[in-house]
């Protein structure tokens, strides 16, 4: 229904452009729709657009999770095989594209040579080949020749998938049906060339199970695009040549949505235009994934369900796709800022539908997650049970399910995702609220505070899941899910106590909410009680305008008597990572003016006649987005053709870093050999005093395992990070390289760059 309505909207709204897309070949290019007025077309387009949006959101809400379809370790052999695309760093068996035995008789063995062309990823180039494996054991190579056990019996020819490639070259010439025209451009491939002999020295039991570990395809990061607000760098959404390697779920998700194109033809992904994407949602997701250390790794396949593929990628970031205002955005798990308090004055109808809890079947109290384990031959294995004791007690029994995350390769990462799934299943949902037309400006992903005590929703934060608009009455109906303040710290392992299961407030509690106070012991009550605020910040963690100061005035009651300014009522304050003070009448007004870390707290203790009668906690959490970023780039890199480190080969670059945050260092150094062959290694160093002082290695040396020979280039890729300093400072960074293997002469190729950033 959504597709049909969307097609109608496109056709009539463009009055020719859309018609050409959907008309039979003989009608393509027709300027208009004969016999229909422009006004009628406009009306139909509006109604169809609304229908399309509503249907799409409804379909999303009822859609199932994508079925488990993980990366395939074995070589895929089929007449019409699927096309793989590698995301991040992973192992793959690949897809067999050509397999033939050939060659003159050798030691009475006919056709002693075997050539197997195996494709590992389309939409290249991939960042590089990390290693080749037989029976999951690494096979060492020197150039294109295997060393060790397979020396003399196994050779390779590798292409990373440049847009314009040369054909793979077999070590033993004469491979049938293979010429210099078989280039496989834009595909990461390996030609495995093996020799069999009568003595059975190698491959006596057949060719072993083969595979390879690759660093996958490039991705678009809007944070590195200076045309995107807050971005800084050369990347452009419409120019894949500017994209860079990334293991970030947000980056790979938006790249899949944009699609991969070669010679004007889409070869992989969705192909949605940039103006149909809420880019800032994907930027926010990337920041969250970076802060949490979440990476995507694995292979997705086409043809197939692209919507399910997108869900698989986003699941690695605890997120899911969501349509909003006709554009594709993301719903993610992170602390949020409430942007409006919804009261009964915002309701178009007092008939509110608030579900007391999700269904019994949905509320699991334990998940046994499955992830792809490198330590277990890259198979999907069960991790430790993620269970919440308080939920088990609440349910009276264990309710456990097994869930596989197809593109997650780390046990801590998958445990955090499982915890989020358990916590989200306990939220109040659905909460259905029909609202007046002025509320139409809010949409999916926005968090509102519900002040509807008569419906059991007093002071409940809730996120809009979907929005429906009635074109006739302009009544907007929100479907929402509550948002518990403490679940993010619990899911990410920062606290050991899960938040309680949310519930609708009781009649007594509703009365208290109506009074604006919480009843305390011994007849005393205080308001407000503990509260949580998410502070909206730039990419660098600087609070945006309007976030501070925060203030609250405390009220204290003994029974129904207001004793807030009674001389016996006193207020005291303790803080952590924030600047706050008490003032005003009787020192009962709290003002928070700033915070000095990603998390901060202020605690107000209230006493009457020296006895503590209540404690109100204020918790602050920074929520970062694409507001700003500090970075510096050097594109004048060089190569040191010595076996030991010598003069600087990149930088030095000065960069303002801190307080805290993360310093990232990335090097993309394509290189080739003008003479012979060699392999390149490199490391990044920093010093805390520009212009003087000793240099410190940022991390261990990185070695390019593949190496370059004449006509066969390679690339040294470095991606490292360290924590920023506690106080703001300017540091310097430099790149050193060396030739760690071989005696060839190496030289820098185009597009070499070193980028240092502070987030």
Any key phrases for this structure?
mainly beta, six-stranded mixed beta sheet, about 15% helix, disordered N terminus
Polypeptide structure, described:
The chain is mainly β. The protein contains ten helices and 49 strands. α1 packs antiparallel against α3 and α4 (249-258) packs antiparallel against α5 (279-292). The two termini are 43 Å apart. Mean pLDDT is 83; it is low at 1-64 and 509-522.
Strand-helix topology:
Layout lengths: L1 H13 L2 H6 L15 H25 L20 E5 L1 E4 L2 E8 L10 E9 L4 E9 L2 E2 L2 E2 L2 E2 L7 E6 L28 E8 L14 E10 L24 E2 L3 H10 L1 E3 L2 E4 L10 H14 L5 E5 L3 H10 L3 E6 L2 E6 L5 E5 L10 E2 L11 E8 L5 E4 L3 E2 L1 H7 L4 E5 L6 H14 L6 E5 L11 E6 L4 E13 L6 E7 L4 H5 L15 H9 L2 E2 L4 E4 L3 E7 L12 E4 L1 E4 L2 E2 L6 E8 L1 E6 L5 E7 L3 E10 L2 E14 L5 E5 L15 E8 L4 E14 L1 E11 L8 E2 L4 E2 L4 E2 L4 E10 L5 E14 L2 E4 L4 E6 L1
Parallel strand pairs: 18-25, 20-23, 30-38
Antiparallel strand pairs: 1-15, 2-11, 3-4, 4-10, 5-6, 5-11, 7-8, 9-10, 11-12, 13-14, 16-17, 19-24, 20-21, 20-22, 24-27, 25-26, 26-27, 28-29, 29-32, 31-36, 32-33, 34-37, 35-36, 37-38, 39-49, 40-47, 41-46, 41-48, 41-49, 42-43, 42-44, 42-45, 42-47
Measured as a percent range, the helix fraction is 10-25%
Main beta sheet strand tally, sense and closure? 6 strands, mixed
Q: How does the helix and strand content classify structurally?
A: mainly beta
Number of helices: 10
The neighbouring-strand order within the major sheet is: 18-25-26-27-24-19
Which spans of ≥5 residues are poorly predicted at pLDDT below 50?
Answer: 1-64, 509-522
Overall mean confidence score, pLDDT: 83
Query: Gap between N and C termini, in Å?
Result: 43 Å
The proportion of residues in beta strands is 35-45%
Number of β-strand runs: 49
Shape: elongated
Radius of gyration based on Cα positions: 30 Å
């Amino acid at each position: 229904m959504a597709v049909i309505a969307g097609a109608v909207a496109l056709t009539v709204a463009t009055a020719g452009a859309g018609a050409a897309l959907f008309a039979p070949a003989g009608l393509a290019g027709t300027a208009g729709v004969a016999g229909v007025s422009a006004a009628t077309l406009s009306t139909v387009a509006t109604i169809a657009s609304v229908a399309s949006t509503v249907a799409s959101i409804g379909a999303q809400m009822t859609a199932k999770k994508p079925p488990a379809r993980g990366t395939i370790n074995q070589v895929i052999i089929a007449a019409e095989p699927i096309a793989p695309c590698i995301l991040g760093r992973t192992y793959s068996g690949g897809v067999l594209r050509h397999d033939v035995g050939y060659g003159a008789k050798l030691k009475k063995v006919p056709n002693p040579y075997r050539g197997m062309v195996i494709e590992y990823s389309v939409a290249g180039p991939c960042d590089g080949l990390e290693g080749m494996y037989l029976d999951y054991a690494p096979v060492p190579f020197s150039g294109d020749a295997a060393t060790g056990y397979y020396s003399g019996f196994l050779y390779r020819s590798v292409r990373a998938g440049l847009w314009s490639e040369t054909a793979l070259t077999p070590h033993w010439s004469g491979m049938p049906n293979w010429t210099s025209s078989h280039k496989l451009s834009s595909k990461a491939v390996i030609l495995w060339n093996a020799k069999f002999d009568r003595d059975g020295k190698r491959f006596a039991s057949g060719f072993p199970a083969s595979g390879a570990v690759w660093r996958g395809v490039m991705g678009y990061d809007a944070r590195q695009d200076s045309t995107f607000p807050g971005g800084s760098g050369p990347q452009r959404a419409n120019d894949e040549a500017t994209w860079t390697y990334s293991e970030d779920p947000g980056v790979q998700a938006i790249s899949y949505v944009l699609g991969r194109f070669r010679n004007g033809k889409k070869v992989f992904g969705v192909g949605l235009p940039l103006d149909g994407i809420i880019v800032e949602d994907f930027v926010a997701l990337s920041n969250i994934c970076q802060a949490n250390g979440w990476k995507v790794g694995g292979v997705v396949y086409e043809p197939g369900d692209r919507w399910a593929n997108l869900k698989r990628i986003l699941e690695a970031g605890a997120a899911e796709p969501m349509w909003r205002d006709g554009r594709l955005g993301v719903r993610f798990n992170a602390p949020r800022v409430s942007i409006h308090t919804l009261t009964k004055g915002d309701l178009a109808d007092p008939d509110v539908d608030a579900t007391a809890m999700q269904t019994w079947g949905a509320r699991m109290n334990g998940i046994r997650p499955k992830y792809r384990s490198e330590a277990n031959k890259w198979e999907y294995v069960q991790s430790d049970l993620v269970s919440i004791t308080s939920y088990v007690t609440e349910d009276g029994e264990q309710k456990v399910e097994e869930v596989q995350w197809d593109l997650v390769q780390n046990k801590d990462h998958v445990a955090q995702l499982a915890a989020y799934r358990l916590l989200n299943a306990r939220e109040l949902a659905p909460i259905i609220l029909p609202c007046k037309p002025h509320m139409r400006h809010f949409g999916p992903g926005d968090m509102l505070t519900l002040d509807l005590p008569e419906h059991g929703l007093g002071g409940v934060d809730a996120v809009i899941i979907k929005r429906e608009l009635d074109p006739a009455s302009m009544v907007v109906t929100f479907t929402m899910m509550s948002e518990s303040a403490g679940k993010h710290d619990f899911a990410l392992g920062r606290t050991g106590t899960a938040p309680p299961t949310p519930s609708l407030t009781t009649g007594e509690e509703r009365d208290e909410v109506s009074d604006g106070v919480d009843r305390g012991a011994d007849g005393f009550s205080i308001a407000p009680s503990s509260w949580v605020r998410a502070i909206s910040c730039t990419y660098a963690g600087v609070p945006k305008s309007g976030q501070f100061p925060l203030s609250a005035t405390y009220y204290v009651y003994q029974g129904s008597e207001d004793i807030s300014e009674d001389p016996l009522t006193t207020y005291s304050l303790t803080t952590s990572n924030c600047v706050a003070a008490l003032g005003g009448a009787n020192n009962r007004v709290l003002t928070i003016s700033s915070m000095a870390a990603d998390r901060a707290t202020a605690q107000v203790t209230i006493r009457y006649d020296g006895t503590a009668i209540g404690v109100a906690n204020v918790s602050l959490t920074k929520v970062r987005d694409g507001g700003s970023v500090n970075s510096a780039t050097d594109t004048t890199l060089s190569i040191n053709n010595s076996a030991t480190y010598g003069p600087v080969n990149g930088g030095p670059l000065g960069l303002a870093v801190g307080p805290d945050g993360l310093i990232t260092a990335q090097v993309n150094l394509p290189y080739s050999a003008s003479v012979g062959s060699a392999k390149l290694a490199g490391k990044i160093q920093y010093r805390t005093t520009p212009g003087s002082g000793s240099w410190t290695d940022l991390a261990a040396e990185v070695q390019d395992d593949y190496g370059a020979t004449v006509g066969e280039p390679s690339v040294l890729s470095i991606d490292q990070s360290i924590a920023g300093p506690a106080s703001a400072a300017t540091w310097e960074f430099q790149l050193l390289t060396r030739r760690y293997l071989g005696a060839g002469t190496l030289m820098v190729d185009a597009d070499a760059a070193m980028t240092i950033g502070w987030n």
